[in-house]
Design brief:
Layout: H1 2-20, E1 48-55, H2 57-60, H3 70-81, E2 86-93, H4 99-107, E3 117-121, H5 124-128, H6 133-150, E4 158-161, H7 177-201, E5 204-206, H8 209-212, H9 231-250
Parallel strand pairs: 1-2, 1-3, 3-4, 4-5
Helix pairs in contact: 3-9, 4-6, 6-7
Length: about 250
Protein backbone atom coordinates (compact mmCIF):
# COMPACT_ATOMS: atom_id res chain seq x y z
CA UNK A 1 0.00 0.00 0.00
CA UNK A 2 2.82 2.37 0.86
CA UNK A 3 4.47 1.66 -2.49
CA UNK A 4 1.18 2.28 -4.33
CA UNK A 5 0.65 5.62 -2.60
CA UNK A 6 4.23 6.68 -3.36
CA UNK A 7 3.74 5.97 -7.11
CA UNK A 8 0.58 8.12 -7.13
CA UNK A 9 2.48 11.02 -5.60
CA UNK A 10 5.32 10.74 -8.15
CA UNK A 11 2.91 10.63 -11.11
CA UNK A 12 0.99 13.62 -9.74
CA UNK A 13 4.16 15.70 -9.37
CA UNK A 14 5.31 14.77 -12.86
CA UNK A 15 1.94 15.78 -14.33
CA UNK A 16 1.94 19.05 -12.46
CA UNK A 17 5.41 19.94 -13.71
CA UNK A 18 4.41 19.26 -17.30
CA UNK A 19 1.41 21.57 -17.13
CA UNK A 20 2.95 24.42 -15.21
CA UNK A 21 6.22 24.70 -17.12
CA UNK A 22 5.63 26.09 -20.63
CA UNK A 23 7.36 24.66 -23.67
CA UNK A 24 9.20 27.34 -25.57
CA UNK A 25 10.83 27.23 -29.00
CA UNK A 26 14.34 28.44 -29.58
CA UNK A 27 14.21 32.25 -30.09
CA UNK A 28 14.82 33.60 -33.63
CA UNK A 29 17.93 35.78 -33.63
CA UNK A 30 17.68 38.67 -36.14
CA UNK A 31 21.09 39.77 -37.43
CA UNK A 32 21.86 43.47 -37.06
CA UNK A 33 21.17 45.60 -40.13
CA UNK A 34 24.32 47.06 -41.67
CA UNK A 35 23.52 50.69 -42.40
CA UNK A 36 27.04 51.63 -43.45
CA UNK A 37 27.20 53.08 -46.99
CA UNK A 38 28.34 50.70 -49.70
CA UNK A 39 31.41 51.93 -51.52
CA UNK A 40 32.44 50.49 -54.85
CA UNK A 41 36.20 50.50 -55.25
CA UNK A 42 37.57 52.30 -58.28
CA UNK A 43 39.70 50.20 -60.58
CA UNK A 44 43.18 51.69 -60.83
CA UNK A 45 44.19 53.24 -64.14
CA UNK A 46 47.47 54.40 -65.67
CA UNK A 47 49.53 56.95 -63.76
CA UNK A 48 49.41 59.32 -66.74
CA UNK A 49 46.41 59.95 -69.00
CA UNK A 50 46.56 62.05 -72.18
CA UNK A 51 43.16 63.40 -73.25
CA UNK A 52 42.41 64.94 -76.66
CA UNK A 53 39.13 66.81 -77.26
CA UNK A 54 38.11 67.41 -80.89
CA UNK A 55 35.25 69.62 -82.01
CA UNK A 56 33.87 73.12 -82.55
CA UNK A 57 32.35 75.85 -80.36
CA UNK A 58 30.74 73.26 -78.09
CA UNK A 59 34.16 71.83 -77.29
CA UNK A 60 36.13 75.07 -77.04
CA UNK A 61 33.37 76.43 -74.80
CA UNK A 62 32.17 79.54 -76.58
CA UNK A 63 31.04 82.23 -74.10
CA UNK A 64 32.10 80.32 -70.98
CA UNK A 65 35.38 80.40 -69.06
CA UNK A 66 38.22 78.07 -70.05
CA UNK A 67 37.73 75.82 -67.03
CA UNK A 68 33.95 75.81 -67.60
CA UNK A 69 33.99 73.98 -70.94
CA UNK A 70 33.21 70.29 -70.77
CA UNK A 71 36.73 68.91 -71.52
CA UNK A 72 38.17 70.90 -68.60
CA UNK A 73 35.31 69.88 -66.31
CA UNK A 74 35.79 66.25 -67.33
CA UNK A 75 39.50 66.49 -66.57
CA UNK A 76 38.78 68.00 -63.13
CA UNK A 77 36.23 65.31 -62.31
CA UNK A 78 38.65 62.56 -63.31
CA UNK A 79 41.37 64.02 -61.09
CA UNK A 80 38.98 63.73 -58.13
CA UNK A 81 38.15 60.11 -58.99
CA UNK A 82 41.78 59.18 -59.70
CA UNK A 83 43.91 61.42 -57.45
CA UNK A 84 47.07 59.42 -58.14
CA UNK A 85 46.85 59.95 -61.92
CA UNK A 86 48.20 62.92 -63.85
CA UNK A 87 45.86 64.16 -66.58
CA UNK A 88 46.90 66.26 -69.57
CA UNK A 89 44.39 67.86 -71.95
CA UNK A 90 44.75 69.08 -75.52
CA UNK A 91 41.79 70.78 -77.25
CA UNK A 92 41.54 71.09 -81.03
CA UNK A 93 38.38 73.09 -81.62
CA UNK A 94 37.28 76.50 -82.88
CA UNK A 95 33.91 78.20 -83.05
CA UNK A 96 32.38 77.81 -86.50
CA UNK A 97 34.32 74.73 -87.52
CA UNK A 98 32.68 72.21 -89.81
CA UNK A 99 33.80 68.61 -90.28
CA UNK A 100 36.06 69.84 -93.13
CA UNK A 101 37.62 72.47 -90.86
CA UNK A 102 38.43 69.94 -88.17
CA UNK A 103 39.95 67.50 -90.66
CA UNK A 104 42.18 70.26 -92.06
CA UNK A 105 43.32 71.26 -88.59
CA UNK A 106 44.18 67.70 -87.57
CA UNK A 107 46.06 67.13 -90.83
CA UNK A 108 48.01 70.34 -90.28
CA UNK A 109 49.30 69.33 -86.86
CA UNK A 110 52.00 66.85 -86.04
CA UNK A 111 49.95 64.84 -83.56
CA UNK A 112 51.26 61.67 -81.95
CA UNK A 113 49.07 58.63 -81.58
CA UNK A 114 49.53 58.54 -77.81
CA UNK A 115 46.16 59.63 -76.44
CA UNK A 116 44.42 57.48 -73.84
CA UNK A 117 41.10 59.24 -74.40
CA UNK A 118 39.71 61.10 -77.43
CA UNK A 119 36.31 62.78 -77.55
CA UNK A 120 34.64 64.03 -80.72
CA UNK A 121 31.72 66.47 -81.02
CA UNK A 122 31.23 67.93 -84.49
CA UNK A 123 28.58 68.70 -87.09
CA UNK A 124 26.40 71.57 -85.94
CA UNK A 125 28.03 74.04 -88.32
CA UNK A 126 27.48 71.69 -91.25
CA UNK A 127 23.79 71.97 -90.43
CA UNK A 128 23.87 75.70 -89.61
CA UNK A 129 25.67 76.61 -92.86
CA UNK A 130 23.35 74.32 -94.84
CA UNK A 131 26.19 72.24 -96.22
CA UNK A 132 24.93 69.22 -98.10
CA UNK A 133 24.44 66.30 -95.72
CA UNK A 134 26.58 64.11 -97.95
CA UNK A 135 29.65 65.99 -96.69
CA UNK A 136 28.93 64.86 -93.15
CA UNK A 137 28.26 61.30 -94.31
CA UNK A 138 31.73 61.26 -95.86
CA UNK A 139 33.72 63.29 -93.33
CA UNK A 140 32.30 62.11 -90.00
CA UNK A 141 33.60 58.54 -90.52
CA UNK A 142 36.93 60.03 -91.58
CA UNK A 143 37.12 61.98 -88.32
CA UNK A 144 36.20 58.94 -86.27
CA UNK A 145 38.99 56.97 -87.94
CA UNK A 146 41.44 59.78 -87.24
CA UNK A 147 40.32 59.80 -83.61
CA UNK A 148 40.94 56.07 -83.34
CA UNK A 149 44.44 56.41 -84.77
CA UNK A 150 45.24 59.18 -82.30
CA UNK A 151 43.80 57.05 -79.48
CA UNK A 152 46.64 54.54 -79.78
CA UNK A 153 44.65 52.78 -82.51
CA UNK A 154 42.17 51.60 -79.88
CA UNK A 155 38.52 52.41 -80.61
CA UNK A 156 37.65 51.74 -76.96
CA UNK A 157 39.45 54.98 -76.12
CA UNK A 158 37.16 57.06 -78.39
CA UNK A 159 33.88 58.64 -77.28
CA UNK A 160 31.56 60.49 -79.68
CA UNK A 161 29.10 63.06 -78.32
CA UNK A 162 25.81 63.95 -79.99
CA UNK A 163 25.22 67.44 -81.40
CA UNK A 164 23.37 69.88 -79.11
CA UNK A 165 20.12 71.41 -80.36
CA UNK A 166 20.35 75.20 -80.58
CA UNK A 167 16.66 75.43 -81.55
CA UNK A 168 15.95 75.41 -77.82
CA UNK A 169 17.90 78.56 -77.03
CA UNK A 170 16.81 82.21 -76.63
CA UNK A 171 18.86 82.93 -79.77
CA UNK A 172 16.56 80.73 -81.86
CA UNK A 173 13.37 81.69 -80.05
CA UNK A 174 12.91 84.52 -82.56
CA UNK A 175 12.68 81.97 -85.37
CA UNK A 176 9.33 80.69 -86.53
CA UNK A 177 8.16 77.40 -85.02
CA UNK A 178 8.47 75.83 -88.46
CA UNK A 179 12.13 76.83 -88.70
CA UNK A 180 12.89 75.64 -85.18
CA UNK A 181 11.25 72.30 -85.91
CA UNK A 182 13.36 72.01 -89.05
CA UNK A 183 16.56 72.66 -87.08
CA UNK A 184 15.70 69.95 -84.55
CA UNK A 185 14.74 67.51 -87.28
CA UNK A 186 18.00 68.06 -89.13
CA UNK A 187 20.08 67.73 -85.96
CA UNK A 188 18.25 64.46 -85.26
CA UNK A 189 19.29 63.32 -88.72
CA UNK A 190 22.95 64.13 -88.03
CA UNK A 191 22.86 62.44 -84.65
CA UNK A 192 21.08 59.39 -85.99
CA UNK A 193 23.73 58.92 -88.66
CA UNK A 194 26.55 59.34 -86.13
CA UNK A 195 24.97 56.97 -83.61
CA UNK A 196 24.28 54.26 -86.19
CA UNK A 197 27.83 54.53 -87.52
CA UNK A 198 29.26 54.27 -84.02
CA UNK A 199 27.11 51.23 -83.23
CA UNK A 200 28.28 49.58 -86.44
CA UNK A 201 31.92 50.23 -85.55
CA UNK A 202 31.43 49.44 -81.84
CA UNK A 203 32.38 52.95 -80.72
CA UNK A 204 30.82 54.58 -77.68
CA UNK A 205 28.19 57.20 -78.57
CA UNK A 206 26.96 59.50 -75.80
CA UNK A 207 23.75 61.50 -76.27
CA UNK A 208 23.65 64.89 -74.57
CA UNK A 209 21.14 66.53 -76.94
CA UNK A 210 18.21 66.20 -74.52
CA UNK A 211 20.10 68.30 -71.98
CA UNK A 212 20.28 71.19 -74.43
CA UNK A 213 16.61 70.80 -75.32
CA UNK A 214 15.75 72.07 -71.86
CA UNK A 215 17.36 75.43 -72.63
CA UNK A 216 14.11 77.36 -72.95
CA UNK A 217 12.69 75.83 -69.77
CA UNK A 218 15.87 76.40 -67.79
CA UNK A 219 17.83 79.51 -68.75
CA UNK A 220 20.77 78.45 -66.56
CA UNK A 221 21.62 75.85 -69.21
CA UNK A 222 22.40 78.56 -71.78
CA UNK A 223 25.49 80.78 -71.82
CA UNK A 224 25.41 84.57 -71.77
CA UNK A 225 25.44 84.69 -75.59
CA UNK A 226 21.95 83.10 -75.53
CA UNK A 227 23.12 80.38 -77.93
CA UNK A 228 25.76 78.04 -76.49
CA UNK A 229 25.62 75.73 -73.46
CA UNK A 230 26.52 77.18 -70.08
CA UNK A 231 28.93 75.88 -67.46
CA UNK A 232 25.98 74.14 -65.79
CA UNK A 233 24.97 72.43 -69.04
CA UNK A 234 28.54 71.27 -69.59
CA UNK A 235 28.65 69.85 -66.07
CA UNK A 236 25.59 67.78 -66.97
CA UNK A 237 27.40 66.60 -70.10
CA UNK A 238 30.21 65.40 -67.85
CA UNK A 239 27.80 63.61 -65.49
CA UNK A 240 26.57 61.55 -68.44
CA UNK A 241 30.09 60.98 -69.76
CA UNK A 242 31.86 59.91 -66.57
CA UNK A 243 30.62 56.28 -66.41
CA UNK A 244 31.63 55.69 -70.04
CA UNK A 245 34.97 57.44 -69.60
CA UNK A 246 35.81 55.31 -66.56
CA UNK A 247 35.17 52.16 -68.56
CA UNK A 248 37.38 53.41 -71.38
CA UNK A 249 40.24 54.30 -69.04
CA UNK A 250 40.03 51.04 -67.10
CA UNK A 251 40.22 48.82 -70.16
Amino acid sequence: MMIFLLMIVVVSCSSENSTTEPITNNPVITPPVNTAPITIPTTPIAKTINYLALGDSYTIGQSVCETCRYPEQLKSSLKVIYPETDFSLKVIATTGWTTSSLISSINGQNLESNYDLVTLLIGVNNQFLRIDFSAYEKEFPELVNKAIILAKNDKKNVLVLSIPDYAYTPFASAYSQERRNKISSEIDKYNSFAENYCKLKEIEFISITDITRRGLQNSSLVASDRLHPSEIAYSQFVDVMIPKVKIALQN
